[in-house]
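Recall that a protein's primary structure is simply its ordered list of amino acids. Everything else, from secondary elements to tertiary packing, is in principle encoded there. The following example makes that idea concrete.
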Amino acid sequence: MASGSLASLVDGRLQGERSIPDPMDRRSMSNRHGRPGIILQGSMMVVLPLFLVVPPARLDPARGSGKISVASPISFDYVPRPDRMAGGAFSLFFWLLLHALLLGGVPHSATAGMPDHPNASVAALESRTFKLVNDHRSAIGLAPLVHDARIAAVARRHSRNMAEGRVPAGHDGFETRRRDISKRIPLRGIAENVGANDYPRSDTVRAAVSGWLESRGHRENIEGRYDLTGVGIARDSRGVYYYTQIFIRRKQ
């Protein structure tokens, strides 16, 4: 199947190789307009040679109702690593389909016995992600988010489940995470950003945050009226980093 025809089926746009933009450099984002879509470039077999930004999830009260409503997912955005551009659209599409078929029926449970505390290496990446997100909020005049270890523990378990293949990369179990957090924090709104990439350790956080900021839905979560957040990161055996950031607006 030609890459152009496949792209039209997914309402995406084709893009070529590009470097990782600085998430705090507005000039690097000013010429990127249009709806996010699937960038159909990839390599053969089952190595994940791409950056994956999963559609954001958001639960906010319906206006004036006091109830919680579900916002529709916004977009997929796949950004391949520049050094792994071999292959074509069909190989990436086939891998994604296979991934969904293999993992779609796996129970969505937390990792049994898995500690909620990250090792020092992962903790540093989580802190870097938290800082870059707050740097963006501060740059546009928004109050910084406050880190909450309870939220981070929930986010981290989801990232570990994705890294271990227990759930597909996405928002499976989002309602369970909402309930878990609401037992500890009276919440008014909750949102979640998820992503994955196989960039080297030195670039992975910058790539993740840049990808979120270039997606309207994910950026709206980052810039939303939230006051607490938690970041969880896990790395699988192939070197792919999985990111989960949860945003909370507390009841006043």
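The chain is about 35% helix and 20% strand. The chain has a mean pLDDT of 68.
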